[in-house]
Amino acid sequence: DGGITQSPKYLFRKEGQNVTLSCEQNLNHDAMYWYRQDPGQGLRLIYYSQIVNDFQKGDIAEGYSVSREKKESFPLTVTSAQKNPTAFYLCASSPRGRGGSEKLFFGSGTQLSVL
Amino acid sequence: EDQVTQSPEALRLQEGESSSLNCSYTVSGLRGLFWYRQDPGKGPEFLFTLYSAGEEKEKERLKATLTKKESFLHITAPKPEDSATYLCAVRNSGNTPLVFGKGTRLSVIA
Lengths: 115, 110
Prior knowledge:
The complex is a heterodimer of chains A (115) and B (110). With 115 residues, chain A is mostly beta strands. Helices cover 0% and strands 49% of the residues of chain A. In chain A, β5 (43-51) and β6 (54-57) form a beta hairpin. Chain A is globular, with a radius of gyration of 14 Å. Classes of the chains: A mainly beta (115), B mainly beta (110). At the A-B interface, β5, β9 and β10 of A face β4, β5, β9 and β10 of B.
């Protein structure tokens, strides 16, 4: 069954702690993305990667870090520098095409809360 | 800078009461306008992609249309299971990641 798997579904962070959100895809997509969603807000881009071993900052990258060592995996670390991390985090992927019209496929999300 | 504005923020309909959701956009060279449906606590689910003004696409009770400045998502005779947040997003000619609007939260009451 092809798709995007995010884990865990719920995560709690203590003050000063770094936490890592997992995102794995078996769709053979080149591009992967991390979005943050706050209540009543749209999706805001944190980081994205269009190819292995390369990634770019999105609109709200401060306090976050990523890696892309494998095509299938794009983990997101929420560092202690992110002072307001409580949000719903969504991972997505898309194929890499010529026109830029490729749609995103989303995972089921991780809800991060601060203890 | 690309921008997407959705209205209304929330919409409450009676079952069978048709209506439309609006997505206004400014983008440097539209490569695609996307509509997604999102249920609470879940990831967005793809509905439609529109590429050029005048294009229309339909799926069950939903119909999406596109002009040079905005897109509409028309919902005909909605049912309670259509209740969800509907998100609009655009991609520009530079092939940068999608830019999303804040969504319209639709509630359909039986």
